[in-house]
């Protein structure tokens, strides 16, 4: 093999290794910038969700301690995705907020909220606690409703990247979301399983389990 051939072979191998390195870097998960996430939370999110993710009332969810993967997915679902006519989650306020965030912004702010300490919540209706606990821990067998705990955990901590944390969430917010799941398109259409489950619950059952979840820890 002459010198030119050897040189070309070395360059070819080097180019191949460089390409593999670029692919490897592209495959690496994007690292969140928590400090940047905090800045976004304070500037954009605090008025509704609180600077630390602990909202002041049930009109807006508590985000503190929530799984970052879940938060990123929800933010993306507020945007109209290519080929879709409407977002998977229909909320005029959040649509505007999410539209202003890049994918990296979403990752950053989700990482920040996930590191914050959630404030505990409380159940308020002692008359429905037993029913709420029954639904959360055992489901409603004759309606084909599984136990909430089977996905969200016995204490409502959820499973990272799969099922959200529910512990201590405002009852009013949980009721609103369960009702939105019953409506599907035009309200909340980003989880087929929850659409089916919520549609089988009565309004009184929804209120009972939401109130129970508020005091769950």
UniProtKB/TrEMBL annotation:
UniProt PTM comment: Binds 2 heme c groups covalently per subunit.
Domain of life: Bacteria
Cellular compartments per GO CC: periplasmic space
Recorded coiled-coil stretches: none
Pfam families membership: Cytochrom_C
Stretches assigned to the Cytochrome c domain: 32-117, 127-217
Binding site for heme c 2: 148, 151-152, 194
Molecular-function GO term, any one: heme binding
SUPFAM superfamilies (UniProt xref): Cytochrome c
Protein residues bound to heme c 1: 45, 48-49, 94
Keywords: Electron transport, Heme, Iron, Metal-binding, Periplasm, Signal, Transport
Subcellular location(s) of the protein: Periplasm
Full protein name: Cytochrome c domain-containing protein
